[in-house]
Amino acid sequence: MSNRVSLVNPCIQFEASTIKIPCIVTVIFFILGNALYSILKVFDPLGDLGTYYGMIVSRFIVGLSSANVTLTRSYVAGATTLKERTTGIAIIAASQALGFVVGPVIQALVTGIIQTPLYSNADWLYLDKYTACGWIAAALGFINLVILMPFIFKEHNIAEKERALMKETDQNVKLPKPDYIGVGGTLFGFFVALFIFTLLETLAEPFVQDEYGWSDDKAVVIVGIALAVGGVLSVGMFAVSGILAKKYDERKVMLGLGFPLLIIGSFLALPWGNAEMPRKCDELSSNVTYTSTVPTSQYAPITHFPFEDYDVSDTTTNSHEDCYEDSGCPYDEQPWCEYTPQIPIPQLAISYIIIILGYPVCQSLCQAIYSKMLGPKPQGLWMGVLTGVGGLSRILGPIFVSYVYTYLGPYVTFGALTGSMVVAELELLVLFKRLIPMKIPSVKELKGFDGPASEKY
Question: Which residue from 120, 234, 247, 411 lies 20 to 30 Å from 47 (Cα-Cα)?
Fold first, then answer.
C-alpha cells in the first residue's frame, strides 16, 4: 500500500476552491478497497493465485485512498493562521499516529474474540480474524464519508484572509521561493522519525517471536496492547509538543527533546543481556523436545476472558536441548541468533516508551516548521512531497526488516537506527538558522527606498 501512496501523493496539487470532492472520492476508494479485502474468496475461481492478485488490487485501492493525507495537511495549512499552525499540524499528526495504532489494536481484539470463523450461506462471505478487520475499516470509512457531507463539514481558508489583510500595495508582491536546503533538511528529519515508527510497527511481531518464543496469536495480542498504550502516550505528547512550541522556540523543542529521545530509545533497544534466545526447531533436527506456544483456549470453547492466556512474563530462554516448533529464533536461517543475547522485557518496554514519547514531538514540529517555511500559498504539491517521503519510509521499513534484521540481526538494525537519528539531529542543527517561516518582503523592501519619488515606481 505504501508505495502506492508515495507515487500518488506528490502528484496531488488540488487547485480548486474545495477539497471536499477529492476527499469524498478517496474515502470511497478506502471503503471499496477494504470491503474487497474482506471478500477475497470470490477470486478463488481465477486459480491458485486468484486471491493473491485480488489482495494486491484491494491494497492498491486502499493505497490510492491514502492520498487524502495530502489533502488534509494542505487544508490545515490553509485553514490556520501562522500562530495556530503548529497546534493544527500537531492535531493532524496525532490523528495519523492514532490511526497507525488503531489497526494493531483492532487486530489484537479480533484475534482474542473470534476463535472460530463465522460462515454465511455464501462461501465467499465469512467472518474471521482477518476479514473482520477489513469490514471494521470499511465501516470506519463510511463514518468518515458521513462526516465529509456538506451539512457537517464546512471549509474555511484563513490563509487567503490573512493575505487579504496585507497592505493593498503588498498583495501583488510575488512570494519568494522556499529555502530548498532548509526544506530538504526538514524532509530528511521527518523521514527518519517516521522510519523508526514504521520499523517498530513492521518489526514488532517477528521480533518478539524471535526473542521470547511467543506464538503468532500471542504476539499479535501483546503487540496490539503495547501499541494501544503507546497510542495514548503519543496523543498526549502531541498535545504537549503544541504547548511547548507556544512557550519556546519550536526548533529547540524538536532538537532538544524530540530527537534526543529517539536517539536514546533506539540505543536502548540494542541487546545488553546475558540470556540466550529460544531456539526455533529446525525441520531436520532430531532428538529435541518440542514446546507448544499455542494458547489452550484456541481449541476450546470460550468460557473465560480470551486474553488471559497471553502472559507477558511467560518467556523462555533457550536450551539447545529444547526448541519451539512454530516460534523462537531460527538459528539455521539467522546465524546471529547463536551469539546475540535476549533483550530483557523491561529494557524493551523502556526503549519503546522513550521512542513513543519522542516520535510525536519530532513529527508534529517537523511538519509545522515545514509548512511555515512554504509561506502563505497553496501547499498541495509540497504536502504531497511530504506525504510521499512518509510513504517512502513505509516502503523501506519492511525491506529493512527483510534484509538487515533477518541477515544481520538487532545489533546492526538498531545501531543503524541510532546512527540515522544522530545524523538527522546534526544536520538539523547545522540548518538551524534556516528553519524559519518564509519572510514576505514588502514593495518597499523589494524596490529599496530612495525618498518620496521612488514611491511612484
Answer: 120
Whether the CB-CB separation of 78 and 379 falls below 8 Å is answered with yes
In a domain, 24, yes or no: yes
Q: For the packed helices 345-374 and 68-78, what is the interaxial angle rounded to 10 degrees?
A: 60
Q: How far is CA 340 from CA 227, 267, 276, 289, 448, in A?
A: 25, 16, 7, 22, 67
Q: Give the cell for residue 328.
A: 523462537
Is 320 a domain residue?
A: no
8 belongs to a structural domain: yes
370: DSSP letter: H
Contact in structure between 86 and 365 (CB atoms under 8 Å): yes
SS3 330: coil
326 domain residue, yes or no: no
Cα Rg, the chain, nearest whole Å: 25
Distance between CA 415 and CA 437 in Å, rounded? 34
Structural domain count, the chain: 1
* Domain span at 415: 2-275+341-444
Residue pLDDT, tens place only, 6-29: 445 444 444 445 778 888 999 999
Contact predicate 194/386, CB 8 Å: no
CATH of the domain at 234: 1.20.1250.20
Using CA atoms, how far apart are residues 397 and 197, in angstroms rounded to an integer? 9
82-96, 122-136, 349-363, 434-448: segment of lowest average pLDDT:
434-448
Proportion of the chain above pLDDT 90, given as a percent: 22
Amino acid at residue number 448 = G
